[in-house]
Amino acid sequence: MNAPIRRVATAVMAMTVLLVANLTYVQVIKADDYADDPRNQRVLLAEYSRERGQISADGQVLARSVPSDGRYPYVREYPTGPTFASITGYYSSIYGTSGIERAANDVLNGSDPRLFTRRLSDLITGRDSSGGNVVTTIDPVVQQTAYDELASNGYTGAVVALRPDTGAILALASTPSYDPNPLASPSARVQQEAWAEYTSAEPPVLVNRTIEERYPPGSTFKLVIAAAALESGRYTPETQVTAASSITLADTTTTLQNFNGNQCGTGQTASLRDALQRSCNTAFAEIGADLGEEAVRDQAEAFGIGTEELTIPMPVAPSTIGDIESTAALQQSAIGQRDVALTPMQNAVIVATIANDGQLMAPHLIEEIQGQDLETIDTTAPDQLGRAVSPEVANTLTELMVNNENSYSGSGKIRGVQIAAKTGTAEHGTMPKQTAPHVWYVAFAPAANPQVAVAVLVESGGDRDNLAATGGEIAAPIGRAVIGAALRGTQ
């Protein structure tokens, strides 16, 4: 064989090996990734040919497949529309999936291993195959209340409600929202028009602010600092801290002030109890510096901040306290500013943990998986992730939060129900002093026997010109309404 032919043969062999390697990579190694990719239209088109399982909450159908005489035998339908879109997500032949439609796709399309027996039976009997059903932990009344409280006021924000003792998610409301129905339409034109509308909306509507967006927590983060202080054994509710209206951050010329420059009490010092109730920045900045970065970071991680990624089963954006390169940075972080960033879900987990005697529970959205004939295939058991604080410290924090709530004014107080709470006002943006702050309210109730924990976040105080917005004024009434909805019939 002469040299030119030998070179050609070698090149052909090399290309054949590369081709086989590529096919192996695509069809074996990456097969599951491509099959699970929400942009994979072939998978969706195949699934449209069979009945997809339901998504429900306490007997209310949130998503179902209905027969169609159009291009596809079945079309996805969302009876609850925008109110539950942050939970269901969408199911589109063009744009893929999101929410539970994405996270529980194997169950809904019937390919989950737990549904193998039914698939085998369908194959033997020739019966049309269908998917399994997902029953969520959502309380429809609580979800509706949370959504209405945000949407009726035109707020951009989020509400998360949890059962402290189990981690079951009762509400996951995000506004502004969208209607998933047009994205499930058999008409490509309808889907494309809806997608164009949703993706160009401002504020964005396809973002689930409860788990995908992170915000500076402001003064709600003082619960973490108070927990670290009490856990250290060097602080009690009566320990005296600075009452100064302003301090200079360590090794800088930067001044840190209390809200509106208020004095933290009437003297030179104030108790930790009063400092938390008055939400004194100066006091908690100095407490943070006294505790040190390691103690603050350890306590934050004990509450789940900055640890491994969480899924509910949708992935939750990891919260963080950021890098802390100096004492001044630690002082700013201790009041929930600088690089501290939490999802509303994470903030709800913090107060739920305090309510649960310091035991951190994994939040979860799926209560059970059902087969096609509604028999229970699997259930979600409560999952203890660890202990954030001792029961004694949790009880002390509860007392401090009760003192906070009883000092707050504002609407929505619930007669006969003692709430434990903390409000927060968080600066943000490139010009924070000229930008309306984000406002928070985190709480649980009843304080003596917690049944529900909530976190409410309203972006930019509900009004981008409302520079004086506070959590007590804007977010607290929403949180109290949600608590009231969750406690209906339990009192």
Describe the 3D structure.
- With 491 residues, the protein is an alpha+beta fold.
- It has a domain at 218-364 and 386-486: Beta-lactamase, CATH 3.40.710.
- 36% of the residues lie in helices and 18% in strands.
- It contains 17 helices and 21 strands.
- The chain has helices spanning 3-29, 31-36, 41-47, 85-88, 99-103, 105-108, 116-125, 140-151, 188-200, 222-232, 272-278, 281-291, 293-302, 327-333, 344-355, 391-407, 471-486; strands at residues 55-57, 60-67, 74-77, 91-92, 96-97, 133-136, 157-162, 169-175, 240-242, 246-248, 255-257, 269-271, 310-311, 315-316, 359-361, 366-370, 376-379, 384-387, 420-426, 438-445, 452-458.
- The strands form 7 sheets. Strands 3-2-1-6-16-17 form a 6-stranded mixed β-sheet, with no helix packed on it. Strands 8-7-21-20-19 form a 5-stranded antiparallel β-sheet. The chain has a two-stranded antiparallel sheet with strand order 4-5.
- A hairpin with a 6-residue loop joins strand 2 (60-67) and strand 3.
- Helix 8 runs antiparallel to helix 17.
Descriptive tags:
single chain, 491 residues, Beta-lactamase, 6-stranded mixed β-sheet, 5-stranded antiparallel β-sheet, 21 strands, 18% strand
